[in-house]
Amino acid sequence: MAGSMRTLAQALARTGGLLAVAIALGAGAAVPAAAKPDTAQDAPSSAASPPEPTKPLPERARAVLEAHCPACRDASGVQGAPLDLDTIATNPRLVTPKRPDASRIYQQLLAQQSLTLGQAKEPAQREGNGKKAEAGGKDKAPDTEETAPPSPAHATPDEIETVRDWIESLPARDEGCRDRAVIGKADMEAQIDRWMKAAGEAKAADTRFVALAHLWNACTSPARMKEFREAATTFLQALARRNGAMDIETVGEESAILTFRLSEFHRPADEEDVLIDPPPTVVSGDAIPIDWFAAQFLGNARPGGALERMVKSFDGAALSAAEELARSWNGDVDLLRAAAERGLPPADLANTLSKMEGDLLLPARRLLHGVLTRAAWNRLAAALDGRRPTDEAATAPAADEIDVVLWTDKPAYRPRDLVTLNASVSTACHLTLINVDKAGKAIVLFPNELEPENLVAPSVTIQVPGHDAGYQLRFDESGEEEIVAICQRKRRDPLGIAYDYEKQRFAVLGDWRTFLRTAPEREREVRAREAAENARRTRRRGRSAPVAPPEAAAVDPEGPAIEGRAAIYVPIAPAGMANR
Asked: Distance from first CA to last CA of the chain, Å, rounded?
């Protein structure tokens, strides 16, 4: 082979797909035919179609979430009351409208199913990656290999698909306000200046302002803005020296700023700094964000202090208003909300986040494709402003979760651009990356024949393809590609996935929705094949009991079986239109 050149050839082709995988071939080798998808893996013939719906989709989704989503019950508020789907749908921590694979409640339903079925009988005889699994034949799996029946603790595939349908049916958070002008700092200052000039010097000197502009910027609907204004008015009236007697006005065409008279405001002297310290993230000019104000007020009501005494004096309406505003501030922050607080279009903030490196890389990428806790966003916003965060505490994931951060090397692409995927996880686990194209066809990008080992260490950036991996990833057509990450502590392969590198260098899953719905059935088939193969291998060796082949490296064998998921959506613009 000396003196020969290496060539790039297409080793995997999918009709209509956007993703191309180029493999570096040995010199002199013939260009292989494109790998054919394993039609047996595309969709098991015995897969039953989901039943015809008998109730409206939201009602069916609510029933599934009430039974299987503890986080939904916590977020919905009143214990024992029916789940408030509107509250859940607008909670960025739980739901990303139209994108179920990126929605926490959907991820948790899949994880419950995967962990329950996967651990019902841990496959001690799971074949290592890349081994050829033989199906059929007269061999029967030993009784010890029978899969336990599904546990009622997890949702059924049809129930999970109902939640997927509901999330896909939701309007995008910015759908109703894509033409809405962002209210920035300069706009707010101009509105306040005009109001003060019209009010006169004496009244202006006695007036302070609270802002709802960041809520307006975050695509809050007109009806919800009205509710926030009413809550703000109720809360401020409860703080008046004479309860309910404060003169409150709205400022600007959007009514996104409210006034109150300082002389009518009851501000305890010993708590003064709590109420006037500027918020860490909002670019609000001379106005204080009302939801931050309420969160500060309630959060700093120390036992026996003046603020606590004031809170105890609130009637039910005032306390409910203050708590509603505080929840608005204390909730998790997505890109839309973060940009709204800074008075920027989301695309402008996204461009900034995509360039951040070092210690800010992970929180920036997490926000770019998902959500941050309020504390994490406060720290990131402070860094964006060149300020030192006042709260340096790290936000660690829960012990029963794996935090997966997934991102690409560029924010957008053009057809034929090379792409590198990056991932970081909070605990050691077995990582799987799946591409879903715009036609809904799915393929496993990692692990693969050239990079079969998928155990990754925590807090280390994993790149796919890796250096000298021998293949490249390209997006062939304009559109949007989805990348799904699954990382499991106990299992190497996600539910229903088996690798046969003698047939496919990259495992083809077929239609993504069909795969998800039939994953439990696929898993049973995989285990049956593995058990039969192990039994045949045992008889050939003349042994009386199965001998397990080498398994993937153990990850905390005494710890719980946990799973983390993430999904990102990558835009591929027509040639000549993408920002490079």
From this structure: 38
Residue closest to 123 by CA, chosen among 580, 534, 562? 534
pLDDT at res. 390 = 60
The number of residues in the chain equals 580
Which among 107, 115, 85, 83 is positioned nearest to 160, based on CA atoms?
107
Q: Which helix (H) or strand (E) holds 126?
A: none
Q: Scanning the structure block, which residue is given the tokens 């401020």?
A: 236
Phi and psi at residue 525, in whole multiples of 5°? -65, -40
What is the amino acid identity at position 541?
R
- Using CA of residue 295, residue 296, residue 299, residue 303, what is the dihedral sign? negative
Tokens of 546: 């199965």
Q: What is the DSSP string of 404-428?
A: EEEEESSS-B-TT-B--EEEEESS-
Which SS3 state, helix, strand or coil, does residue 284 take? coil
CB atoms within 10 A of CB 543: 10
**By C-alpha distance, which of 265, 236, 264 is closest to 250?**
236
How many whole angstroms separate alpha carbon 126 and alpha carbon 546? 12
Structure tokens at 270: 């010993």
pTM above 0.90, yes or no: no
**What are 249-276's pLDDT values in tens digits?**
999 989 999 998 888 887 655 554 555 5
Is 311 or 266 the better-scoring residue by pLDDT?
A: 311
Tokens of 347: 């695309």
Instruction: Assign 401 a pLDDT band (cuts: 50, 70, 90).
Output: confident
If 0-12 CB within 10 Å is exposed, 13-18 middle and 19+ buried, where does residue 337 land? buried
Tell me the sheet residues that pair with 455: 430
Query: What residues have CB less than 8 Å from 151, skipping those under 6 apart?
Result: 116, 117, 120
DSSP state of 80: T
Please state whether beta strands 287-289 and 250-251 pair in parallel, antiparallel, or not at all (unpaired). unpaired
